[in-house]
Amino acid sequence: RTRKIISHTTSRKKYPRSIDTMKLSLAVLCLAPAVSAFAPSTAFVRQSTKLAVGSQDGVFTGGNDWKPDSEKMGSTDVGDYFPEGYDKDAEPAFEVGMGGSQGMGSNRSGPELPGMENLGADSVVMGGIEENSDIPAGMEFIPSSVPDGTIDMQVAALGGSEITLDVAPVCMTFEDYFAAFSPDSHPSFSVSPQTGRMDRRGGEVTQLFVKCEPNGQAGTFEGDLVINLPEDNSKICYKIKAVSF
């Protein structure tokens, strides 16, 4: 018996695109709408416009060509206007009202309440600051090594002499003072007043009267005048020199 062998050949069909190419194409198609969302739309794009300033007739660029009527720069504010029918002569003078609502044309002075016109005329002041009239016991009058001033006197041996010493205040407040000569000064010297109140700095001077009475003795006498300011813890010193003849 004869066996017939039939051969069968199967051929593979060729596709035009591979699987990888198809995946890439699919990815591009999916991303296309998302990318287009960020693209500017022509419907909302502002068109640029060129503005020509000063190109029109009658337009001045920057106002440089403008000038006032007086041909010089001045104020352009609107001034104040008087009301209709204004008469300056009928208006009150500028000094009216300076004395207050009840001051003009009034000769009154003092309290306004009836029955108090003589208030203070017979009043008695009680209290206040009292000055020391005596030098406190135990107060020492020691001159400083450098005096604040030197005063020369010419004295008649039989008659004596007196000078006025103006002492400028040196304290910031009113201060009680006590004046006397140091114990080693010549006994012919004396000062008055010995106590008082000195004005504050820049105020009035305090006048002291320095007297030298030699009682017939001739020669040159020296003394140290000490002005104690105990509240200020300070003192003022003067060197007095008297020539008796």
Topology:
Elements: H1 19-36, E1 149-155, E2 161-167, E3 175-181, E4 189-192, E5 195-198, E6 206-212, E7 219-229, E8 234-244
Parallel strand pairs: 1-8
Antiparallel strand pairs: 2-6, 3-5, 3-7, 4-6, 7-8
List keywords for this structure.
single chain, 245 residues, mainly beta, 5-stranded mixed sheet, 3-stranded antiparallel sheet, elongated
Strand fraction equals: 15-25%
**Helical residue percent?**
under 10%
Element order, helices and strands?
HEEEEEEEE
Helix/strand-derived category reads mainly beta
**What's the total number of strands?**
8
Q: In angstroms, what separates the terminal alpha carbons?
A: 196 Å
- Average pLDDT, rounded to a whole number, is 75
List low-pLDDT spans: 5-12
Rg result: 57 Å
Q: Could you give the order of strands across the largest sheet?
A: 1-8-7-3-5
Shape: elongated
Number of helices: 1
> Biggest β-sheet: count, sense, barrel?
5 strands, mixed
